[in-house]
Amino acid sequence: MTEPRWLDAVQQRDWRAYVEGSVRLADLLDRDLKSKHGLTMAEYEILVRLSEAPERRLRMAELADIASQSRSRLSHTVSRLECKGLVARNNCGADKRGVFAELTEDGFAFLSKAAVDHVATVRDFFVDVIDPDDLRAIGRAFTAIADQVAKAR
Amino acid sequence: MTEPRWLDAVQQRDWRAYVEGSVRLADLLDRDLKSKHGLTMAEYEILVRLSEAPERRLRMAELADIASQSRSRLSHTVSRLECKGLVARNNCGADKRGVFAELTEDGFAFLSKAAVDHVATVRDFFVDVIDPDDLRAIGRAFTAIADQVAKAR
DNA sequence: CACGCTTGATTGAATATTCAACAAAATTCC
DNA sequence: GGAATTTTGTTGAATATTCAATCAAGCGTG
């Protein structure tokens, strides 16, 4: 049996601060987006990724991957977005199993409006309240974390 | 109408890295805790907070507050933890509306085991993959963010 | 004291997410 | 070529979370 390696006091404090802060921030961003535009962060993320893809469309599997969602979850969520007319599904010629999720014109217009408010909130509660150097540190750190998580799978 | 203030390229990249990394990390921690001990992070957090409270118990409202959960959610979650025998509810003498959530002996023992594995995972995917200075930066930043979110309510 | 107002906590229905099972098409391998 | 396997995507049931309504108790004020 191996001895558990606990965090030291400072590490513990920083880790806890992160857990609490990130939960509260996520909660705020969700509420903000939901109250102003009826979207969750997960839905917003899907729209953003589609908007940036060539022809504003992506295969479901790839979209699930870059939006960090399970395929099942994406399937359900895209169905909801489809009902709202923001996304459309069309099947992919090359691979007959494949399905493209495509951002509609309405979806793009809707996203453009939502993005303005969302970015303002991200500024107000994230970018503008932290030191620029600390923001860089966060960027570095979470890139490394994402890599590590990806490596483990 | 005010001009939207977009993020510059670097801010954008760092913000996105954070969103992606934090979602992936949260997902991994949840899966890890769930597969090894049948707990979600939210449930784990509740147990931790109770374990640190005097007499290992807290009023529901206070627990909801420090665990960053809605009261409704806490109510449901505590019911589940109660079914598992990890937490008990007892009513508070002073304020007849009040309810204490208390960590049981079983709950404490259970948490002790779970914590060993959880901390190891936090090390493997968070603490040990980032620069110590960056960890400090994260601590500072998310403390400021949590304050800002709290201020806004 | 009694009226309105706030706080503490729970409930059930609506909504969202996970999980396991499935079907269909593509790929691998002999 | 064709059986076995993998990949893609969806589905429905089980589970969890949100949301709005409710109830009971405390508090403040005229």
From TrEMBL, chains A, B:
Transmembrane segments: none
SUPFAM superfamilies hit by this protein: Winged helix' DNA-binding domain
Matching InterPro entries: HTH_MarR-typ (IPR000835), MarR/SlyA-like (IPR039422), WH-like_DNA-bd_sf (IPR036388), WH_DNA-bd_sf (IPR036390)
Domain HTH marR-type residue range list: 1-147
Xref: Gene3D superfamilies: Winged helix-like DNA-binding domain superfamily/Winged helix DNA-binding domain
Any Pfam family: MarR_2
Molecular function via GO: DNA-binding transcription factor activity
GO biological process, one term: response to stress
PANTHER family found in the cross-reference section: MARR FAMILY REGULATORY PROTEIN, TRANSCRIPTIONAL REGULATOR, MARR FAMILY
Protein name in the entry: MarR family transcriptional regulator
Organism of origin: Actinoallomurus iriomotensis
